[in-house]
């Protein structure tokens, strides 16, 4: 339970970039899993993969649900400064835990499209194999590889725009 | 000498992950390197993505807040019941409603009863004076001596019975030998001596002499019994 909680919370946190949202979504994931436990089949490729798939679906739902709010926020603050956005979204203890680069990558992740974001998170942060990502996202392996590749390139470009790059 | 194929920017971008994960064929690898080394657009892109991967792989897992697990349990299994008022004051009694507590109490009571009974306390005529420590000590001491005396007597009785049995069996063995002696007188030999030779050991002869003496004493004590056995 503790291991799954940690993993699901991390996926949610990396996807949303917000501790409060990650907590709420983690609870939603476990509630959904608890209610639909009877529909679980080993054909999904393991319980962890099934949970990750449930998490991914809820994250996409959450992304679509909050899209309007994000548009309003971006109109209010057309050119958000990285430091200000980071400080408003996280608590001081969270900022202390994350290094400067990690913090900037986290900000850049939230600007990535959800399809590319989830692929990068599962591959580079959760260290999943291509087969597991394929089962989680229910897309062909070629699509998984393509999304990971495009996600990394897009993320690197966003970081460049933010003024973060190799020294 | 083969000429390397010229890769475009799009090809470089499409195979960037394969390059970083070492999945390119040697020829593709050389073509990739040749393009990147001369391209002002792809070289910084490769450096940026490599830098990004270094950062991504160094990102530690975030520890979820401890309250999250309790929140999840509340949400899935239902909120915990909060007890208030008198029920809260006596809530600790619920912990006693456990079979283990019952077994423990029963064993304590049984031990107490055994100890009190062993100390000589009379349940038919209970007296408070019997529960004084001095009385309990004296009674317990008396009980111990009584038990020891009974045990000693029991062992002594067992020994007597065994001796009677062994003498009777000895007697049964001697009757046929006496019949044989009438027809063919044997040379005088001590009891326990089986042939004309000397006893196999002095110890065996001493034991036989002892049995003879005991048999004489038994015949004197129980003449009727011995006569009946002989008949």
Question: Any overview of this molecule?
Answer:
The complex is a heterodimer of chains A (about 170) and B (about 230). Chain A has about 170 residues and is mainly alpha-helical. Helices cover about 75% and strands about 0% of the residues of chain A. Chain A has one domain (about 1-160): Butyryl-CoA Dehydrogenase, subunit A, domain 3, CATH 1.20.140. Chain A is built from 10 helices and no strands. Chain B has about 230 residues and is mainly alpha-helical. Among the domains of chain B are: about 10-55, no CATH class; about 135-230. Chain B has 10 helices and no strands. Chain B has helices at about 10-15, 15-20, 25-40, 40-55, 65-75, 85-90, 100-120, 135-185, 200-220, 225-230. The longest helix of chain B has about 50 residues, at about 135-185. The N and C termini of chain B lie far apart (about 130 Å). The mean pLDDT of chain B is about 80. The interface of A and B includes residues 30, 31, 34 and 145 of A.
**Total E-strand runs of chain A:** 0
| Rg on CA atoms of chain B, Å | 51 Å
Structural class of chain A: mainly alpha
Q: The biggest beta sheet of chain B, please? A: none
> Termini separation of chain A (Å)?
42 Å
Which homologous superfamily in CATH is the superfamily of chain A? PhyR, sigma-like (SL) domain
How much helix, percentage-wise, in residues of chain A? over 70%
Low-confidence stretches of chain B are: none
Overall average pLDDT of chain A: 82
The rough form of chain B would be described as elongated
**Proportion of β residues of chain B?**
under 5%
Architecture of chain A, according to CATH?
A: Up-down Bundle
- Given helix and strand content, the structural type of chain B is mainly alpha
Structure summary, number of beta strands of chain B: 0
Question: How many domains would you count in the coordinates of chain A?
Answer: 1
Pair with the most extensive interface? A-B, 38 and 30 residues
Topology order of chain B in helix (H) and strand (E) letters:
HHHHHHHHHH
Helix-residue proportion of chain B:
55-70%
